[in-house]
Design a protein that fits this description.
42% helix, alpha/beta, 2 domains, 13 strands, seven-stranded parallel β-sheet, 16 helices, 16% strand, six-stranded parallel β-sheet, Rossmann fold
């Protein structure tokens, strides 16, 4: 535990009441590593946490309460209905339910010292407005910039009324917050353009939890990286949300182009999202059922890890557009910790942190170029090893412990004031 965490824990334990944080996120807790990491950092620092998130329907196991964590799971999520108006309804219903639960708890004696709101959407913060009026500080965590994502999702120009309204919603939400954190330096600069105050904000990179994604050893001898072909599949992995902007259909088409050149190729997709039916249909259309496999939806992090370890290559073929320009995919960092080299597109944010010596860059929306890059790395295990080794240098500059202390410092300062 860091010095800051130890100090916070000591302060909390010596007080008459344990400090409590409400963690609100329209997401599934088991499959959202950033939210889980915040909760873990808080509990290790001595805070109690109430998590208000989505619940799984059916047979999937929902998270269970522990000594320091209590789960309040008001709603599921229906991926079969993804129109913009239905999504607004879902967001609004979750905002009202989460806000009511927090207010009821606070007034009944389970008082909150800080409310942490994770977007999307930003307007989840309006559910915390009653507590804000009761002088409870509210932290807004901007994982994603909604105007850019919805501009891409619905293929509308930046002047469209919906996009202008989302910029206004973002600005109002940031104004209501006591403090704002965001996940990338490029995203921080974009938020500043929308009137975010530098003094009321910080960047905390969305880094993989080292306990969940350990730094696995790389081969000391490059000969160890060379595969004995024909003794198993050449494994290419992707995990996370399945959305059109993330380009998994491009990866599937690239695999289709490589079936003769790489007979043992296999693309393993782990995750879920509104684009999944389109991807499954594309696999059926191209007859790639043996070359492309899907998980049964989102999986807990430990099961995701099992599906990634030992992979030869990872792909993040995001479509370069306004929705992906500001994203540093956490999955990319997770691959590097596991020693998996990656192919991705050179977006502004990825190029802010990585060079071509660390990542294999390919042009976006180009299955042929992606197939050529995969084939080149399939035939050159030494190059794969060099990419994996060079990518590890990222963690010399940005590490989990430093980012954790930045976050806990923000929460501690909010409690003090």
């Amino acid at each position: 535990m860091s010095n800051l965490a130890s100090k916070t824990s000591s302060t909390n334990n010596s007080s008459s009441r344990q400090l409590r944080v409400a963690m609100v996120a329209y997401t599934f807790y088991n499959s959202d590593p950033r939210v889980r990491r915040h909760v873990r950092n808080l509990t290790e620092a001595g805070y109690a946490v109430d998590v208000i998130a989505l619940h799984y329907d059916g047979d999937r196991e929902n998270p269970q309460d522990s000594d320091a964590i209590r789960f309040l799971l008001p709603r599921g999520r229906d991926y079969s209905r993804q129109g913009k108006f239905y999504q607004i309804y879902e967001y609004t219903a979750f905002t009202v339910q989460s806000g009511w639960r927090m207010l009821r708890n606070h007034l009944s004696g389970r008082k909150y010292d800080v409310v942490h709101i994770n977007n999307m959407p930003n307007f989840l913060i309006f559910g915390a407005l009653p507590l804000r009026l009761l002088r409870v500080p509210v932290l807004l965590d901007v994982h994603d910039t909604m105007p850019e994502i919805y501009q891409e999702r619905f293929d509308v120009p930046p002047t469209h009324w919906m996009i202008r309204l989302l910029f206004l919603e973002e600005r109002w939400s940031m104004r209501l917050a006591s403090f704002i954190i965001t996940t990338e330096h490029t995203k921080w600069e974009r938020l500043i353009e929308n009137r975010l105050q530098r003094k009321r904000s910080k960047v905390t990179l969305n880094l993989p939890d080292p306990d969940l994604f350990p730094l696995l050893p790389l081969p000391d001898n490059r000969e160890h990286a060379n595969d004995e072909r024909g003794k198993g599949p050449f494994r290419i992995v992707y995990h996370g949300t399945l959305a059109r902007r993330l380009g998994l259909d491009i990866a599937i088409r690239a695999v289709g182009l490589l079936c003769e050149s790489i007979p043992n190729i296999r693309l393993e997709i782990t995750g879920d999202g509104e684009f999944r039916p389109n991807l499954v249909a594309l696999v059926d259309e191209l007859g790639l059922q043996e070359q492309v496999v899907f998980s049964d939806g989102f999986l807990p992090t430990d099961q995701v890890l099992e599906r990634l370890i030992g992979a030869h290559l990872a792909v993040i073929p995001s479509r370069p557009n306004i929705g992906t320009r500001l994203m540093l995919p956490t999955k990319l960092l997770e691959y590097f910790r596991l020693g998996i080299p990656a192919i991705t597109v050179p977006t502004d944010t990825i190029c802010h942190y990585f060079t071509k010596e660390m990542v294999c860059f390919v042009p976006g929306e180009n299955p042929e170029a992606l197939a050529e890059a995969i084939l080149g790395l399939y035939e050159n295990a030494e190059r794969r090893l060099e990419l994996a080794q060079n990518a590890r240098r990222f963690f010399d500059t940005y590490n989990f412990e430093t980012e954790r202390d930045v976050y806990l410092g923000v929460v501690q300062e909010l409690v003090r004031h």
